[in-house]
Amino acid sequence: MQRTELQSLGEFGLIKRLHQNVKIYHSGSALGIGDDAAVIDHGTDQYQLMTTDMLLEGIHFDLSYYPLKHLGYKAVTVNLSDIAAMNGIPQQITVGLGLSNRFSVEAVEELYQGIYYACEQYKVDLVGGDTTASRSGLVIAITATGTVAKNRVAYRKNAQINDIICVSGDLGGAYLGLQVLEQEKQVFLANPEMQPQLSGKDYIVGRQLRPEARTDLVYEFIEQDLVPTAMIDVSDGLASELLHICQQSQMGAVIFEDKIPIDALSVETAMDFNLNPTTCALNGGEDYELLFTIKPADFNKIKNNPHITPIGYIREPSQGVMLHTRGDSQIPITAQGWTHF
Ligand code: ADP
Ligand code: MG
């Protein structure tokens, strides 16, 4: 039998291939693979949403600088972010844990303190899970459910020409926080007497260790009577997420480099690492902000919102997906994202 290397397909290629062979047996499965969460229709005026995200030691986190409590919090919020990306409100989670004998009961309790805290912050119920032994360190797989009124659901696919592309919060910080943590780890490994120098970097280190889901915006959209035409959360970086919206909506887009919201500390830290801040925002990932498109007529509803920045607009597909740079040239946006394989 032919052997195909995972690298040759990449994460998205693999998912696409698996997707092709899926059979659907229930008419209630309104939307399966391909968006931030699955959409289930129980025949009421609301959809149920369902999503899973898994965090693996050595791939997604390094316990030498990841406090377990933060890790528990993040494992929950990254899932709630996918519910928010459908314009939904989260309700329940289940927690799958793989543990090696390296972990004590106290360590697991610390992890759960973070999980409980996230549940309290987002008013989500922990309703089950699974616990198993692991040979390769800590694994946390969380499934979250949520609900959204049928007329408020936001897919990745319905962006229209001239829609305004908006993003919440600021971008690139989580990636730069990770660079700071990695650097301090190397300093510590070289000389264990050295204490980590994280002071002044709290904001971006926090963006990495303890991201929030933007459920607050989902509530704001309800108040403003606004439904984004398309929405996705920024887990892999602005470039990758914008390409998902454009591919699924069969549209082109232009975003303006000078509009991309990047915190001053992120810019400063990027410079220290000889990185381009825009590249960090485009390809860094893990910011868990919301990227969405709105009809031009809805612009008034967001224009004074300090949490939301318009960064560009949707165009004809033939115009491609472009970055209008500070130097006034337009370059095609390509996804780098994370390739785990
Ligand atoms: P997100 O970054 O929003 O969590 P992903 O890029 O991880 O989304 O996944 C994209 C889509 O593929 C989602 O609909 C997800 O449910 C689906 N998916 C990912 N991995 C698998 C898998 N192993 N089997 C089936 N569906 C998957
Ligand atoms: Mg997502």
Please tag this protein with its features.
13 strands; Phosphoribosyl-aminoimidazole Synthetase, Chain A, domain 2; single chain; alpha+beta; binds magnesium ion; 60s Ribosomal Protein L30, Chain: A; 341 residues; binds adenosine-5'-diphosphate
Describe this structure in words.
There is one protein chain. This protein is α+β, with helices and mostly antiparallel strands. The chain has helices spanning 6-20, 68-84, 105-122, 173-190, 202-209, 215-224, 238-249, 264-272, 277-283, 299-302; strands spanning 29-31, 38-41, 46-56, 89-99, 125-133, 139-149, 164-168, 230-233, 252-256, 290-294, 308-315, 321-324, 330-332. The protein folds into two domains: 19-149, 2-Layer Sandwich (60s Ribosomal Protein L30, Chain: A); 164-332, PurM-like C-terminal domain (Phosphoribosyl-aminoimidazole Synthetase, Chain A, domain 2). The chain has ten helices and 13 strands. β4, α3 and β5 (125-133) form a beta-alpha-beta unit. The two termini are 21 Å apart. It binds adenosine-5'-diphosphate (ADP) and magnesium ion (MG). Adenosine-5'-diphosphate (ADP) binds at residues 15, 18, 33-36, 53, 82, 235. The site of adenosine-5'-diphosphate (ADP) has 9 residues, from α1.
State the end-to-end distance: 21 Å
- Amount of helix: 25-40%
N to C succession of SSEs: HEEEHEHEEEHHHEHEHHEHEEE
Q: Strand fraction band?
A: 15-25%
| Count of the separate structural domains | 2
Structural class, by secondary structure, is alpha+beta
CATH class identity of the largest domain: Alpha Beta
Query: What is the H level of CATH, i.e. the homologous superfamily of the largest domain?
Result: PurM-like C-terminal domain
Q: Ligands in the structure?
A: adenosine-5'-diphosphate, magnesium ion
Report strand order across the widest sheet. Answer: 8-10-7-11-9-12-13
